[in-house]
Amino acid sequence: MSGVLILVVGALTAIGTYLVTSRALSRIVLGFALLGHAAVLALVTAGGRAGDPPLADRLETSADAADPLPQALSLTAIVISFGLTLFLLALAGRQRQLSGDDLVEDDIEDRRIAEHTEAEQ
Amino acid sequence: MLLWVVLGAHLAGIGLIMFAGGTQRRLDARAVFVVAALPALFATGASIRGLSQDTATTSRVAWVEGLDLVLALRLDALSALLGLIVAGIGVLVFVYSAGYFTESSAGLARFAATLSGFSASMIGLVWSDSIWTLFVFWELTSITSFLLVGHKHVDEAVQRSARRALLITASGGLALLAGLLLIADGDTGIALRDLEPTTGTAATVAAALVLIAAATKSAQIPFHVWLPGAMAAPTPVSAYLHSATMVKAGVIAVALFGPIFKDTDVWQPLGIAFGLGSMIWGAIGALRHVDAKLILAWGTISQLGLMIAVLATGSAKATFAGISILVAHAIFKAALFMVVGEIDVRTGTRDVRKLGGLRTSMPVAFWVCVVSGASMAGIPPLLGFPAKEAALEAALGVDGWQRVVLLVGVVGGSVLTVAYTTRFVLTVFGPSDSGEVTDVAPRRLPITAVTTLLAAASIVGFVALDWVGDGVRSAAVLLNPGSEVYSLIRWPGLKTAFVLSMVIIAAGIPLGWFLSRRTDDIPRPLGADGADRLVDEVLSGARRITGRVQHGSLPVYLMTAVVVASAASVPFIAAIDVDALRWTDGAVVPALGVLIVAGAIGTVRIPGRLGAALGLGSVGFGMAGVFVAQGAPDLALTQLLVETVVVVAFVIGLGRLSANFPPVGYVWRTLRMVVATGLGAAVSIGLAGAASKPSGSAPVSDFVDEAAATGGGNNVVNVILTDVRALDTFGEVVVLVAVAVGIVALAQSGRAGAGDDTDLDPEGADPEGTPARSVDEVAS
Amino acid sequence: MIADRSIVVQDGIRLASPLAIIVATMLFFGGHNQPGGGFAGGLVLGAVVALRSATGLSVPLHPVRMMALGGVIIGGVALGPLVVGDVVLDQYIWETTLPVLGKVKAGTALIFDAGVVLVVLGLIVAMLDALAQGGEHRTTLRLDAEGDREADQ
């Protein structure tokens, strides 16, 4: 696992988290996409050293190949975060349609509970 | 097997009531009680059969194989006797309910089903043969009790009472769980009767916990406050749960665990303190109240205290006496509660200041009350008398300080018991200055039948005392083999205990008569208020915490989770071994890393949304480069394509949102930055820690060789995806379909809501030509 | 949007469309031996469709039907082996020699991948549909102004 990539994963996580805690839904989408990248990169780095592409007919010795299993897992991860990004985009669009902006509102039900408690005291 | 069938029959009955009871119109609504009574009758039969057998029937069913958890039931002399009480009184309560409720009463099906559920839980509790089975049924009785107390759930006061009952008994359940964990010592499948007597610190703590659990369940001081509140339940519930059965669970626990804990330092003093304190304080409470039902409830606290004190003493004689009182109490207290319920439904009040003179208008209820009350006061010739004699004998039989304490407590408590019984009978049925209640509704046959039967049982129990004594003895022997020699004695002769009995009666009756004359100037009950406030404080504290924690701001929720997750990385710091880390594979990776991080920063720094999307694109392309360098061409290709589609989607989708992000406050932004940096650092630390300790090399060659040989392909990654992990890939496709369905649904709802006329259904669009709008714009 | 009024870009993408189909086909069939596969193939087609949509070219596909067909294919491949008594998603490989192509090897994984192509393509088209509809004509004018501003940056 290379140290540079570990730092890159950390940076992507930090920036992704910063965006996800925003109130603008479009920023949250960007943040989720970055977190997805971070996760995939973490998987690939955890897979060990770089190697030859795992294509059986082009390898001279199979021991030189990069570990194919993390790659397969990462491929799934890429696809899922792809689907998630698209869905969040559609959600942001719908929110824009309903309320005129794409800001995340406070949870109304939770807000009511909190106000109820404050009123009680 | 029979034992499980009995519990299964209850479940079947509950199912039938729930599905058919509420909706059927052909039969009287009270028919649900007949359905509920049948399984209880079945359980009664099984218990009687168990009593007549010499050998125990056991049944163990594996629950969680790996954890050695079993559900175990056992039918021996003790559990059969307790089962007979629970199920037998259950049958009577169901019959009684049919008379107590009218056809138009609300929620009869719910009531009958819950009560039957309680009946099954309680039978399970007394029959259980492993500590876990005991615990599960113990908690089930707490929950069903909560539901039954809260039967009239629209009333605020009822809600409070139900919550209080649940809070106290469920906390007791946790104490029981902790105590059981301590004594089980890993052997979770152990049968209840196989537990060995223990001493030591762990056993002492466990003994205290079990006693506390018993005290909460049996409403012992200072946990007694829930029981008077539980009188908000319909009277059948009070008669069944809160006098005859559920509150006995604590007594039963003391009986069952007494042999195990009796040598610990804490068991006897704490048990006797709980018991005697409750016996005296409960009896005083009973003398103070003017609500007939509350008088009985406080009397129950007192009687339960007597049982716990006697059983905690642990001698053979005491065990025998404790079981005797348990049996006698179940019979007379159920009858008394039922009569109070009858008075309630026939006169419309339970206030003893308004009642009086019911002797002539409700003669049957009067005689039932006199007989059962006399049994409670320990007056011969009734079943309560030999039971109380046995308790006095037991108190006389012990040595040391316990003898004095027990004797004073039992005698004092008994005097008060006689007093409150006398006061109860006189104020309700005797002549009254405030005018006698004459407006009495007609008698209801099921009530009269059941109460008469229970009163008769107190008499028959005394007549057939040998038979009752045999049952009690064979049960007590299982707890303390020394009980073999004892029996219930009808006429003891002029022994110390008998003299004491007569003194108790002679002192108690005048006291009761005196107090019955002055019901008006008795001070309001004290003491319970403080404990009540404590419970209320717990509840309002919980509400305060909820209000504080559940404030509704989603970013703050998220940040809280992030901070907690970041903290989890701290242990990894020690694991990092910088020497074991390789900085890079090739020179191109750091350059790509810079590109990625720069793109990511761009998504934050670039003010416009489209620019931010392009920053995201550069991250994706940098990622693809890293994949190539790592030897993952499949990932690189997929990443490139995904990124293209995502960027295009952003361009189309975000273009419709306002171009710039809303402004954010400086403090909030700084806080977010700190928290986010924390998580980034945590992830890096975790990865570095993991990388410092590689766990061997991956079986890369195996994968490569196998892929070509059996997977039918040279691209190992793809073979893994479509063959080895085909099911995962299948799930991944399902996710994509779900996403698409969600997107289509969002689009469709928008279409319907906005009444939009731009229907972009591709079916309707011109296949090759451009839509009219675009042509216009191109032309302009 | 970005290139709403650029005929050059529109024509370029129009030309690229058949090319993309060829590339997608290569990726699709080559997937088992070289980088590629159903997902990549579907994404290439999807990217072209997305670009066509972004430049205002027509998108002659129906997303729900495509996904339904893809889902049926995948479900069939997954559950088919059960009918003949094998495990779920069991793979079968056929090898034949054809006149022109020579030795050809095909497995049920290929059919599975065809389903994946349809699902991915359907997803992208559905997304475009959802993003494009609704606010489109309402915001067109404003978008043009924004498009220019974005282009200036």
Describe the structure.
The complex is a heterotrimer of chains A (121), B (780) and C (153). Chain A has helices spanning 3-20, 25-46, 68-99, 108-120. By secondary structure, chain A is mostly helical. Chain A has one domain: Helix Hairpins (Orthogonal Bundle). In chain A, helix 1 (3-20) packs antiparallel against helix 2 (25-46). In chain B, a hairpin with a 4-residue loop joins strand 1 and strand 2. Among the domains of chain B are: 130-538, no CATH class; 592-681, no CATH class; 713-754. Chain B is elongated, with a radius of gyration of 36 Å. Chain B starts with a helix and ends with a helix. Chain B is mainly alpha-helical and 780 residues long. Chain B has 31 helices and two strands. The model of chain B is unreliable at 753-780 (pLDDT under 50). A two-stranded antiparallel ribbon of chain B has the order 1-2. Chain C has one domain (7-152). Chain C is 68% helix and 8% strand. Chain C contains five helices and two strands. In chain C, a hairpin with a 3-residue loop joins strand 1 and strand 2. Chain C is flat, with a radius of gyration of 20 Å. At the A-B interface, helix 1, helix 2, helix 3 and helix 4 of A face helix 21, helix 22, helix 24, helix 25 and helix 26 of B.
